[in-house]
Amino acid sequence: MTSNNSTSIQDIHTAINTVNDPEYPGISIVDLGLLENIEINTAYEVLVELIPTFSGCPALGVIAQDIEEVVRGVPGVKKVDVQWLNTPVWTVDRITAKAKEDLAENFTVAVQINERVECPRCKSMTDKKSHFGPSRCRSIHLCRNCREVIEVLRD
Q1: What is the mean pLDDT of residues 9-26?
Q2: What is the phi/psi pair of residue 125, to 5°?
Q3: CATH code of domain 9-84
Q4: Is this structure's pTM higher than 0.90?
Q5: Beta-bridge mates of residue 82
């Protein structure tokens, strides 16, 4: 719903798109597929619903605080409520092509769509070294060719 002042869902979306993932500076949480829904009521109160990559992600509080801050800065907004949803479940399919490219180029992070994981540096096959990476949504691979250690975002 769009409020009857000049504040629109698009204004809120544009503001949220400036919020970067704390672990990947320069990559928007929108491009990572965390934003699920935005609502504005007639009292200019905004509800932002997000999907976590996993429920125990240590960055959830930081992301919510950053969203509250940027949305409060949108003219006309009186109140902001950020909620983390249990469903739908986040998957790597939600990540935009732009974010996949930025993850590969800037962070040596691949996105696992199927069993085949290519090295973001040389496009060779990788071998899984550890199912568990720095967080539950990531694993560690090693490139067969350039020997680069690769973080892999996965479901």
Answers
A1: 96
A2: -70, 155
A3: 3.30.300.130
A4: no
A5: 48
